[in-house]
Structure formats: C-alpha cells, structure tokens
Amino acid sequence: MARARAVHAARPETDGPRRPLVRRIAATVVAALAATLLVTLPAQPATAATQLIAESFGNANVPDPAWKPLGSACLTRATTAPPSGSSTLGICSSRTLAPAAATTPGSLQLTDNRGNATGGVVYDTAIPANGGLDIRFDQYQYGTATSGADGIGFFLADGGVSLTGAGAAGSALGYSQAGTIPGVNGGYLGVGLDAYGGFSTAAGGGANGACTTLPFSTLRPNAIALRGPGQGTAGYCYLTGATLPTGKTLRGVATNGTNGTANTAAAPGADLGRSIRITVSSARLPVVTVYHGQTAGLADSGLTQVLQYTMTTPAPSSFKLGYVGSTGGQTDAHLIRNVRVSSIDDLRALNLVKQIDRTVAQPAAYVEGSVIPYQFVLTNTAGVLLLNPTVTDPNATGISCPVAVGIIVGGSMTCTGQHRVTAAEALAGPFVNTATASALNVLIPVTSNQSTVTAPIATPAPALSLEKVGVLTDSNGNGRADVGERIAYTFTARNTGNVSLEQVAVTDPRVSGITPATATLTPTTASAAGIGTSTATFTAAPYTVTQADVNAGTTLVNTATANGRTLAGPPPPPPRPPPPSRSTTARPSR
C-alpha cells in the first residue's frame, strides 16, 4: 500500500518465480510516498568416446576457423597467408630457436626463444561438456639454458561466452588476472605447465582477497598447477598443484645435436617434447586428472598421473579452450602439436547442449519482462553428414541457426533463441526449460538427447509508490483557498518492484469518484519491452473547500492510499489510517 497526501492550510489571512510451487506473496504491497516436434526414431549412441577436436598443427594452415591466434602465435610451416575460410593462424615473423618453414612436421608456435614474448590460441567454438573431456597434446618448452620461462597455460572457459582473448601473460600463463589485467573471459579451469614456477604463486593470479587456498610464497618450478573459475579481475584461485617427480620435467635443453641454436632449421625431437593428458569427468562437479609423459607422442601406458582434483564449482554446459605461452627475462620456445579432444562418455549421434548465451553479460537473476538468451550447441558425432538440423523448444522464440545444409562429421553448430520471463514465471522461482534437436542421416531421422538449462529468477520484490497532486481553482487570485473554491486531485501510482501488481486502487477519504476503479501495473522491465504499463493516473471529483475548513484554522491533512496485490496474492485489505507525510499547501481564507 502506498500513501500520498496533500495538505491545505486553513488559517487566518494574517498568516503569510525445476519449477517449484508458486511462491505466495503478501496481499498488500506497501511503499512510501514520493515449434512442432518431429517424430523420429531414437538415435543410437556412439559406440566409443567421441572425437570432438583433432588438430596436429603440422601443416601450412589450419582448416578450422574456430582456432584464433593471439599475440605472436603462428604456424611454423606456414609460408603464405592462410586461405579464406580457414583459421587466421599464419606465418611466423620470428623463429629464434624454433623450426624453419621447411621443417616437417610443423608446429603451433606460441613463442620462440625471445624475451618478453606472448602468444596463444583460443578455440572459439563450444564443445559439449555433458560427456566429459579427454584432452591430449604434445607440448614443447625448450631453450639452450638450464632454466627457462615462463611456461604454457591450457584453459577451459564457459562455452556460452565469446572467447577472443586470453588472460594476463607472465606467471598468469594466459589464464588468470594480474592486477588490473583481467583473466580469461568465463574462465573455469586453468592448467599451468609451469616451468618457471610463478603460476603457483600470487603472481599467477587470484591475489584479490577472495581466494581461500593461498598460493605458494616462492617460485615452484617444474610443477603442474590448477586454478579455478574467474571473471574479470575476480577469482582464478589456486586449487592444487604438484612438482614433477625426480627425472620428470616440463622443459628440455636444446643442443646442436638436437635442435641447434638460433634460427635452426631442425624440428625439435621427441625428447624435447612432453605428452600431456587432461581429463575432466562429466560429473556436475568434475574430477580433473592431469598426466605427464617425459617425451612427446607417448601412449597412455607411458604417462604418469601427476594430480587429481574435484572441482567445487559446477561445470558449464559446454566449454571453449585455449593455449598460451609466454617468456620474460628468461626464455624458452613454446610449441604445441597433436591436439586431440574427445568425450569420455558416449554421446548421441546428434548431441545437444542448451545453455544461456553469455556472449553479452547477463544478470545474476532474471525478472519479469527480461529476456533469457539461449544457445543450442549441436554436435555431429554420427560419423556421417547430418542434414537439416532443427531445434525444438516450446518455451523459446526466435530460434535461428546458421545458414547451412547440415553439420559435417565431428562439427558443431550453435543456434540461438530467447524467452521472455512472464508474470507467472517471475513468481515461480528458477525457470527450467528443455530442448531437443533433430536432423537427417540421409533419410533416417536422428534425434538428440534432451538438454535442460535452469535460469535463476530474482526473488519477487513487490513495491508500489503513489504521487498526489492538487490544483486549486483560485477564483479571486488571492493565492488562498476560499470557501467554495475547488481543488482537483490527480494520483499517479507506479510499480517500483519487479513483479506485476493487479487490482491497484487509490482511496482518498476527502474525495469521491476516483477513476479508474483499479489498474494492473507491470514492472518497468516489462513495460520497457512494450508489455503493459508500470504507471497509472487516477482522477477524482474536485474537493470543495468548506467554511469548516477555514474556521478550523489549522492545516488540513488529506492523505490518499494506493494498494494492490501480486498475481499470487489474496485481495488487498482495507486502507490503514494515514500517517503524517510530506505536504503541498494551499491556504484557505476566511
């Protein structure tokens, strides 16, 4: 209930919303003044873990445009600009202690052996997380000195964000923040292959007062460490880490017989490389396991488990990934080869991940009238081209997919849609929404798994304000209200809360004939989208000043009230007696 009042002086002339049950909201709101589903046969699950990414980086170009270069990253075999439609990874402008263009096989060069260099790549296409991830690659960190820096960072980010850059360089290894330099957008997991040892210290990030696990106070070289979720300059906390056992290293020392010196034409041998395997289970709180092999190209049997950690933050529905290498006063060449990413669990032939689109920053919770943007990530694991992919979501509108005949083998497609929160949903708690997808395997229909996403809904906070304005018809122009003169009142009620209010009514004991009798007011988030109105103006029959008003010789308190209810509330109670309030004044004269 909202109150507003006008005060007229009668003094002598000598004075100058899984959906839970609807949450019930209190009846009275008080505020102070002032797509048809295609019926198909069920798709058969894949018979083995599904390959999601396979890139050797051994050729002169990378066909998949999802690989985006950062800084000095390049392809050692590239001699011409990349062809149209492929990744923009191109020619290396510097090759200090790195392979020449004629060298086979080629590599992804993050940095060569120069000081203060940074380079990386991001894979800016979402890959599903619902089957877990098994990530394998060969990494090369080497120089001619017995120690080098800084290391190579691998990271996973929320697949719903736009991943066009990495975090801070140096000890942060492209994942964490450093001072005012933000960490990777939507970061979920950073794995530091930390030759120098800074990733395990405060210099590696997370020194923002919000981390419960403190990093090491001194360098911890030759270690593999994990850092957790972060956004901007917050988070990226150190989780766990381990120094490699005796005889195991992350980097190698190049000699003339192995790789020569500056601008060598030779490729680094397997003894300068290390096999890395990272698994992220499909659990809601994934188990992360990291393995190390002392040379490149090792089978699983040749790897040693270095660490294992259970995440305490739920994994996003999909991931994007990246690599970053950097040097400082100490240097190494940093190369990557033979990246292979697969699921751990079986996936459907057409796999669907539905998620909130976070390419634009989203609120912590949605309110009535706000739009929840969705992404639908479709991945083809069928082994054949899937034609005419379609997304079905009964609660989403504007579903749109990239213009394409189908999804290539191993490829992904991201469709988009949205849902506007209704008045009933705003009262019902978290909004749970499920989608499916379908496609054609030649002429045989293929149906995806169901994929569900839950959007947080803000706690209902109904609120109502009332503004009252009185206009005196001053017939004799003396600036005072005389007997028989009339005061016309208007009342403006505003919904200042986050849910709709119905049966909003205004009551004023001194006037009658208030119209309209009631109104329904939507919150501003809804009215701004063209849904209803958040304000209503009420009028009443004019009040006529009486002789008693003038004879009283005191101010006349005239208070109006407004009340209403949410869509879940009972009828409003009778208005309460008006308390004192701010006033407007007209002075009647005798």
UniProtKB/TrEMBL annotation:
Region feature (Disordered): 560-590
Boundaries of every DUF7507 domain copy: 349-440, 461-571
Entry-linked InterPro entries: ConA-like_dom_sf, DUF11_rpt, DUF7507
Biased composition (Pro residues): 569-581
Pfam annotation, one family: DUF7507
Protein name (record): DUF7507 domain-containing protein
